[in-house]
Design a protein that fits this description.
Length: 129
């Protein structure tokens, strides 16, 4: 079954659609913390399954060392982290998302005040390939 999720940024200027979300999980790395204000809850999606419905011209890209960060240039909403072939799409923008979290990455760098409250597997850095 093909599942389609719709997402929109804070100002509503950018809208997108995601097909076949693969997994929901958290990244606790310091880059995600600085980008979002806390950990990044994201949905793994194949690049070809992510399409802008509106406002692509508002999207700016911050070229970060590991994964370029795409965000709305009007309201600053974090949209997705480009992992190369896969996108890690910020979960909070998709109101109909109802996946259970299935991983925590980069837990070694987690903020001390962030308490993980689910039973999803935790990886100090990335999961073994
Ligand atoms: Zn926006
Ligand atoms: Zn991260």
């Amino acid at each position: 079954m093909t599942e389609t999720l719709r997402g929109a940024c804070l100002c509503g200027g950018v809208e997108y659609e995601v097909q076949d979300p693969e997994a929901l999980g958290y990244c606790h790395c310091t880059r995600c913390q600085r980008w979002t204000g806390s950990s990044l809850a994201g949905v793994v999606v194949a690049e070809e399954n992510f399409k802008f419905a509106k406002g692509e011209d508002l999207v700016n890209r911050y070229e970060s060392e590991f994964a370029p960060r795409n965000f709305c240039s009007n309201c600053g909403s974090s949209l997705y982290d480009d992992l190369g072939g896969k996108y890690f799409v910020a979960a909070g923008l998709m109101r109909d998302l109802d996946l259970e979290p299935s991983f925590h990455l980069q837990v070694a760098y987690k903020a001390s005040w962030h308490q993980i409250g689910d039973d999803a597997p935790q990886f100090a850095e990335n999961p073994p390939a």
